[in-house]
Specification:
This protein is 41% helix and 11% strand. It has 417 residues and is an alpha/beta fold. The radius of gyration is 20 Å and the shape is globular.
């Protein structure tokens, strides 16, 4: 019987110790008017979760993030198996070793948890008593994640999840030699599509810092709303150094076929000004990267969703349109709709958007879209991991399209030639 995994290419295994929460609060505090205007023009985004039903969504999300990483993986599997189901809920999606989504069954779930490189962005305000910057080394999050994978696999040797994490990288946090060392340490064994790579991931079942394979990650995650610029200006001494580090990262990933996921909607966990965040997050910022590195395997997360809009007007599709343009120019450009699918209306929009592209461009997009959940961040707008799957299964997408998005396309993005 052929193996038929379901792929969630964009999720997180964040605990409360990982994000730079103080940096987020300080950013909001320093830019109160900007934050108010941004949220007012994006009324269906995160701010609603703070007040809806007494903050029930945020409390639900915190109930997940208060766990350790291994427990978060078990919670996700248990949710699909119906452990947390309430009276009146539909039947469990995961039964007898099979995940049922629509009319299709899947024999395992491949999760791609994305590590976020918060770096030292948790610096405290000078007026605080504890004014020393908070340490948010990405290596601590890496250790938590790898230990969590080990704990999940030891506790559930026959567990349904296969976990292929992406490493968060912000080139500003390294000098050139340190960046090269980090890439070499975590991707030394990376060989796209090889049996050796698969075996290396299997070895993480018994992860040990001293003994584990040098291959620990399946890709790279970058996050512009924290201030990461995918193509820094090369002017000046500092600018030249930053461009050199970006060139190293993109060359390294392109040559080895390492997939990269970048945040691409106009909201998110932001610690820089809205203007700066929009500049770095816009797909247009990637035009020179893709021109220089046309073979780069790049996933634009959230398919360029734009929530900011003039009141009374529909959201812009400028970013989504640009991403589709990139797909026509570059063979390895993809997009995922993580977080977007928290509401059934999104799939109504996606159905219309694909159809209106016409036959050729619509077919192009069908071959590049990826299923992602953005769990547990998506709990700010949805009750559960299972509910996210159920909305996808009930969407107006055809069964063939759903299979493309949750199996064929992700498999090609992650492992294909």
């Amino acid at each position: 019987m052929p193996s038929f995994p379901f792929y969630d290419v964009h999720c997180h295994a964040l605990t409360l110790s990982h994000p730079s929460l103080l940096a987020f609060v300080e950013s909001v505090r320093r830019r109160r008017l900007e934050t108010l205007l941004a949220y007012a023009s994006a009324p269906n985004y995160l701010v609603a979760s703070l007040f809806l039903k007494g903050g029930e969504r945020i409390r639900n999300m915190l109930a997940v993030m208060e766990n350790d990483v291994g427990s978060i993986f078990r919670l996700m599997e248990d949710d699909l198996a119906g452990r947390f189901a309430k009276e009146g809920d539909p039947p469990a999606l995961l039964t007898e070793g099979s995940l049922s989504v629509g009319s299709q069954g899947f024999d395992r779930l491949v999760l791609v948890p994305l590590v976020m490189d918060f770096g030292s962005s948790g610096a405290a305000a000078e007026e605080l008593y504890y004014s020393a910057p908070a340490a948010k080394s990405v290596e601590l999050q890496v250790r938590d994640l790898l230990d969590g994978i080990r704990d999940y696999r030891r506790s559930r040797p026959s567990g349904f999840l296969e976990i292929r994490p992406f490493l968060g990288i912000d080139t500003r946090h390294y000098d050139l030699d340190a960046l090269a060392a980090v890439l070499g340490r975590h991707f030394a064994g990376y060989r796209r599509g090889s049996e050796a790579s698969a075996a290396a991931f299997d070895a993480m079942r018994d992860f040990d810092e001293r003994l584990a394979s040098p291959l620990r990650f399946a890709g790279v995650k970058v996050y512009p709303p924290l201030g990461f610029d995918p193509w820094p200006e090369a002017r000046g001494r500092r600018g030249g150094r930053e461009r050199e580090k970006a060139e190293l990262l993109w060359s390294f990933c392109e040559e080895r076929g390492i997939p990269v996921t970048t945040h691409c909607d106009d909201q998110g966990f932001r610690t820089v000004s809205l203007e700066e965040s929009l500049l770095y997050t816009s797909p247009e910022r990637w035009a020179p990267v893709l021109e220089r590195h046309p073979g780069l395997r790049l996933d634009f997360a959230h398919f360029g969703a734009q929530y900011l809009r003039t009141l009374g007007k529909a959201p812009s599709t400028e970013w989504s349109d640009r991403i589709v343009g990139f797909m026509g120019e570059h063979p390895n450009v993809y997009a995922d709709f993580s977080f977007d699918g928290t509401e059934a209306e999104y799939y109504d929009w996606l159905r219309r958007y694909i159809d209106e592209l016409g036959a050729e461009r619509g077919e192009l997009l069908r071959g590049r879209l990826l299923f992602g959940s953005d769990f547990a961040v998506n709990l700010s707008r949805i009750r559960s991991y299972s509910d996210y799957y159920r909305i996808f299964a009930a969407s107006p997408l055809s069964g063939g399209e759903r299979l493309l998005f949750c199996h064929d396309n992700p498999e090609r993005f992650l492992f294909g030639e």
